[in-house]
Amino acid sequence: MRVIAAMSGGVDSAVAAALAVEAGHDVTGVHLALSQQRQRQRLRSGSRGCCSVEDADDARRVAAELGIPFYVWDMADRFAEDVVDDFVAEYAAGRTPNPCLRCNEKIKFAAVLDRAQALGFDAVVTGHHARLAGGELRRSVDTAKDQSYVLGVLTAGQLAGAVFPLGSMTKERVREIAAERGYAVATKPDSHDICFIPDGDTRGFLDRRLGAAPGPVVDAATGAVVGEHTGTHGFTIGQRKGLGIAVGDQRPRYVLGIEPVSRTVTVGTADLAGVDEVRTGAPTWTGPAPSLPFGAVVQLRAHGAGVPCTVTGDDDGGLVLVLHEVQRGVAPGQSAVLYEPDAERGDKVLGQAAVARAARRTPVA
Fold first, then answer.
1. Is domain 212-270 classified as CATH 2.30.30.280?
2. Homologous superfamily (CATH) for 2-187
3. What enzyme category does the UniProt record give (predicted)?
4. Is position 195 annotated as part of the catalytic site?
5. What is the pLDDT of residue 339?
């Protein structure tokens, strides 16, 4: 196949490109320039950020060692609109988005795949830790590094144009392969946090974009104002730290609700923070849509554990997930990724839908 290897400059994409060459594919390396301020992003800061000029240089060196063509595709404007602006708008609306999922959906497997296919390429190779088996998206064998959650938004058509060479190996083995080949990126730290917020200060980033919008922090049990905030965008459902509140007892409080219009953040004790019903927007499926109702395992956060659930539909085209275990920290805007419940096939991704709201069906004990 003629394939584009998306080369971020990290060890995963370097080894994925190398394995694609080794498999006999006709490989062209591409680094995505996603920052609109690239001159300010010369250097990374440890494991924070990505897509810097330094990363492009690292990717270029690996491509040279592989003897493959290498190009930089400028997608900064598309990334700013589809990922960064979406991220800001979601927080402004009181939701908690996942920008990595949005980047996979809108950039890597939409804009990049579309351009690649228009140029006559068959697929895009990435360093994601996930597997494709018979066209089905599955978890990586390295569960600690599994990235199937942020790929759950992809459609069957997009998966047909994707290649994930690393899904059958551990991250340790990936680094070993890079070291065996003498790649300088073999010991390069993994990227963490949000790539376009390299200092890790999400609240500061949103403050600069949205400005101050002060309002009250209210205790759910008493209705009393227990604090003030400078913007609801500084909070997410389930948050415990950094609330800036003063309450009359020592019990920890969690964010239970965010109302951007009234600028109210509601907090409460742990017994009020659990939910067992999640309602979503319209789903996307990685294959044929399952017949409702059906049983599944749902993952509600990028690094969360799977929870058994029963899936039905609602009148608005969304899903209703009845959780078999009470969960905390289920925030609107997050992706609810559904997996096959069968013990032998529980690593298969069925699809996903964005959380619209969550509630408690069963009485609080």
1. yes
2. HUPs (3.40.50.620)
3. transferase
4. yes
5. 96
Helix (H) or strand (E) holding 116: helix 112-118
Q: Judge whether 205 and 224 are in contact, CB under 8 Å.
A: no
Rounded to whole angstroms, the maximal C-alpha distance in the chain is: 67
Q: What would the pLDDT profile of 109-129 be if each residue is shown by its tens digit?
A: 999 999 999 999 999 999 999
Based on the residue annotation, tell me whether 103 is a catalytic residue of this protein. yes
The pairing of beta strand 264-268 with beta strand 215-219: parallel
* Residue ranges covered by each domain of the chain: 2-187, 212-270, 274-359
**12 assigned to a ligand binding site:** yes
> Residue 75, Cβ neighbours under 10 Å: how many?
21
CB 114 within 8 A of CB 155: no
pLDDT at 292: 96
User: Average pLDDT over the chain, rounded to whole?
Assistant: 92
Per-residue buried b or exposed e for 218-230, using 16+ beta carbons within 10 Å of the residue's own CB: bbbeeeeebbebe
Which of 3.40.640.10, 2.40.30.10, 1.20.1380.10, 2.60.120.10 is the CATH number of 274-359? 2.40.30.10
Choose, from 50, 51, 195, 309, the residue flagged as catalytic: 195
Comparison of pLDDT for 92 and 45, the residue scoring more: 92
CA 65 vs CA 22, 28, 59: distances in Å: 13, 13, 10
Residue 140 counted as an annotated binding residue: no
* DSSP letters for 25-69: -EEEEEEEE--TTGGG-SS-BTTB----HHHHHHHHHHHHHHT--
d(CA 234, CA 91): 8
pLDDT tens digits, residue range 147-197? 999 999 999 999 999 999 999 999 999 999 999 999 999 999 887 678 899
Is residue 265 within 8 Å of 213, Cβ to Cβ? no
- Distance, CA of 112 to CA of 30 (rounded, Å): 10
Flag whether 49 is marked binding.
no
Helix (H) or strand (E) holding 209: helix 202-210
Q: Which of 50, 51, 103, 309 is catalytic?
A: 103
